[in-house]
Specification:
148 residues, alpha/beta
């Protein structure tokens, strides 16, 4: 079994949300290497520039300055080198329109940001420990919106 940490990316402009997420990720029973970006443009610059190894999982907020999560998701899915990356939408929005748009544009899962630390930990643990290699081909609208 590999002892190499799982590469996880969080793209979120809110500093408190990033700290909350990082703290929760540290507490789960899985070795991870977290990299943080403030907006979609920073992520894309990294992925198409000096990225030596793609992340196994990207948590992408929707409402950010410079480039929001909607545009970033579209650019990831339209790039042949990036199109297979696992993208989890991680947003405070519970709008049906936002959920539908991200589903149609190829996100793997939609997560409403939990308000409580224990819920966040449980959510992150379940999403990070999923075997995305086998699940991504079976995506349907019924299991797209993540619920604890």
């Amino acid at each position: 079994m590999s002892t190499k940490p799982m590469k996880v990316v969080l793209v979120d402009d809110d500093e408190d949300d990033r700290m909350f997420f990082a703290d929760a990720l540290q507490e789960i029973e899985l070795k991870t290497d977290l990299q943080e970006f403030h907006n979609g443009q920073e992520l894309l610059d990294f992925l198409t520039g000096d990225c030596e190894e793609f992340p196994q999982l990207i948590f992408l907020d929707l409402n950010m300055p410079v480039m929001d999560g909607f545009e970033c998701l579209k650019k990831i899915r339209s790039n042949p080198e990036l199109e297979d990356l696992v993208v989890a939408i991680y947003s405070t929005s519970s709008s049906e329109r936002d959920i539908e748009e991200t589903f149609v544009n190829g996100a793997n899962i939609y997560i409403n940001k939990p308000n409580k630390f224990e819920e966040l930990k449980k959510t992150i643990a379940q999403v990070v420990k999923r075997n995305w290699q086998y699940e991504e081909n079976e995506l349907d609208k019924g299991n797209f919106l993540f619920r604890i």
